Amino acid sequence: MLLKNKDYEGIRKALSANPNLANEGVPYDELNTTKAHPLHRIADGVFNKKYTDEEAVEMAKIFLEFGAKIDGNELIEKQDSPLVAAASLHADQLAIFYVEHGANINHAGCHGGTALHWAAWCGRDKLVKKLVQSGALIDKLCINFKSTPLFWAIHGLKNGGKNPQNYLECVKILLQAGADKSIPNVEGKIPFELLSEEDLALKSLLS
């Protein structure tokens, strides 16, 4: 409830009284009691529009001040770290904040996708740029689909992704960083093969 109400002072008082809460699992909501690390749950709140990305960063700062672990309690393959969660939940500023505070940028979360995979899938060009600049593995394959972040960017756009210009920028950033556009996914397809006739700008980049 303190997170939902972005109650900074309430959060600070609770953590002052019990610093262990900084790393104690928090339920998703009253109906879904599945617990996740507080830094993950802060990202959920951005996605659910309970508060802004900027407000999320302010809450995350308080949790880190009281000992919250930037990668959550344990990095488990195919389970989202707070950074992967933020990247997949459109919490760009929060994700960038986590990167700047030492988050593991190459951890394989849901579907074995890294934060770069998820940022590319969601068309979050600013976060893609930050991750690339921070040394994210450009051609790392996800686990489930054996696909690169470049493939995820194209696939995300072709499967309901909004703001085509942002996806185009993601592709440009990845290619400029040296992404290999010839790497196939588990089905043997390369990114170019996902495109249709109207994808002129992307075809130009990937041809």
TrEMBL record:
InterPro entries hit by this protein: Ankyrin_rpt, Ankyrin_rpt-contain_sf, Multifunctional_regulatory
Keywords recorded for this protein, A-Z: ANK repeat, Repeat
Membrane spanning stretches: none
PROSITE patterns linked to this entry: ANK_REP_REGION, ANK_REPEAT
Kinase recorded as keyword: no
Taxonomic source organism: Emticicia aquatica
ANK repeat placement: 111-139
SMART domains: ANK
Protein name: Ankyrin repeat domain-containing protein
